[in-house]
Write a structure and sequence with these properties.
Elements lengths: L7 E2 L2 E2 L5 H16 L14 E7 L8 E7 L4 E5 L2 H16 L9 E3 L9 E5 L2 E7 L10 E7 L4 E3 L2 E5 L10 E3 L5 E5 L2 E10 L5 E8 L7 E2 L12 E8 L5 E7 L10 E7 L6 E10 L13 E7 L5 E9 L3 E12 L2 E5 L18 E8 L5 E7 L5 E9 L4 E3 L1
Length: about 400
């Protein structure tokens, strides 16, 4: 085998053998090397290929990778973050062939994509997802990054949309807590609504960043935090009302509340999205959450207008016995309310449903390229990986399908 050319190209290890023979080599080698019993094929199914998903480190079950055995005899490998991909491939290739592959990472699969507070924009034939620079790659919380996909499953490696260390704007003094970015298209431009912590105030606050293209470089258009400088504020989200006017919802975090009870707020935005206009309205408190009067956390607001014209908001909190979940409230008026808590939980952990065996929250509602209603959120509030589910608009109720 030393005469074979082995290289990793677009996460495909090129090895010129028949599919069945090569599948057997990989399966046997992995089983022997890592004492793993592998199925004949995995549930992840690509055209002209078979996939195997294996855990290489049982003490950290998220460190796993898929090996996609292609019809042309190649192997495609992906892991939960970049270093995992590289070392998994390196171990695999060394164990089989005594050679080290050339690595050119280009894709990562959604079921292995670690991302917190995911938001997705469908635009011009592609999907754009924004995330903050997360743990596992040596660059912890230093900005925001964009993933792209054609199918909501196979994602590009991220490109940096905003790097805190490169920002020359004197109004920007963020140094950590680059949380909960949301990506939006508005009047021909692209915007990231996001959180960061200020060096000057040591408070978290909300800001807006703009770019000419969805995967381009973003520049801050707000004067630093647009939310009150002496509040801890997170999770800002854009809502466009029926008149085309922009509003922002956000969390007034429990960490800066005297009673440690967080609130949800809304305020009108300027037409260019660069500042708040008018008074901030508090629309509900965290302890109004159904089934948990002791809840202090408000998280992940997103306002949705039903086909009927009524307004709902999804938000996340802690449900006793179920952990992190997604609830809904509805407005009996306009965006300022009054808002009433719904008793039915939109998403909660359900051990009987294989798709809901992990707690999850911080949802974002979008339509795919075919116009189907979807919700993205992260599952497992410790590790946080991407979940995307179908959503149903039933006139005045949202349901995950």
């Amino acid at each position: 085998m030393e005469n074979k050319k082995i290289r990793l190209d677009s996460l495909t290890l090129v090895y010129n053998e028949s599919e069945n023979e090569f599948a057997g080599i990989i399966r046997d080698a992995l089983a022997a090397k890592y004492s793993i019993t592998l199925p004949e094929s995995g549930k992840e199914d690509y055209v002209g290929s078979a996939s195997i998903v294996a855990e290489i480190d049982p003490s950290y079950p998220l460190r796993r990778y898929s090996i996609d055995i292609k019809a042309d005899g190649g192997i495609r490998v992906a892991g939960d973050h970049h270093e995992t991909v590289y070392f998994a491939v390196q171990r695999l290739v060394n164990s089989l062939f005594g050679a080290e592959p050339e690595v050119e990472e280009t894709h990562i699969y959604s079921y292995m994509l670690l991302v917190s507070d995911p938001s997705i924009l469908a635009y011009d034939g592609k999907y754009y997802q924004v995330g903050f620079v997360c743990n596992g790659r040596g660059n912890v919380e230093i900005g925001y990054e964009i993933y792209t996909s054609d199918n909501l499953y196979d994602w590009s490696l991220p490109v940096r949309a905003f790097n805190a260390s490169d920002c020359k704007d004197p109004a920007f003094d963020g140094f950590c807590n680059f949380w909960a970015p949301e990506i939006w298209e508005y009047r021909g431009k692209f915007y990231i609504f996001a959180t960061y912590r200020s060096k000057a105030t040591n408070h978290r606050g909300c800001a807006v960043f703009r770019s000419d293209k969805p995967d381009g470089k973003y520049e801050m258009i707000t004067d630093g935090h647009m939310t009150p400088k002496d509040w801890d504020c997170i999770d800002n989200s854009l809502y466009i009302d029926e008149n085309g006017d922009p509003w922002m919802t956000f969390v007034h975090e429990w960490t800066s509340m005297p009673d440690h009870i967080g609130t949800m707020c809304v305020c009108r935005l300027s037409d260019d999205l660069s500042r708040l206009e008018g008074e901030i309205t508090t629309i509900f408190k965290a302890n109004e959450a159904p089934f948990n009067p002791k809840n202090g956390v408000t998280d992940g607001p997103f306002i949705y207008r039903f086909k009927s014209g009524k307004l709902a908001m999804i938000w996340s909190y802690y449900y006793p016995g179920k952990g992190y979940c997604i609830g809904t409230v509805h407005s009996e008026g306009d965006v300022r309310g009054p808002w009433v808590q719904d008793q039915e939980i939109l998403y909660e952990r359900n051990d009987a449903d294989y798709r809901a065996r992990r707690e999850g929250g911080h949802g974002f509602i979008f339509r795919d390229l075919e116009g189907n209603l979807k919700i993205s959120f992260h599952c497992n509030n410790n590790y946080k990986w991407l979940c995307i589910r179908d959503l149903s608009d039933e006139g005045d109720v949202l349901r995950i399908i």
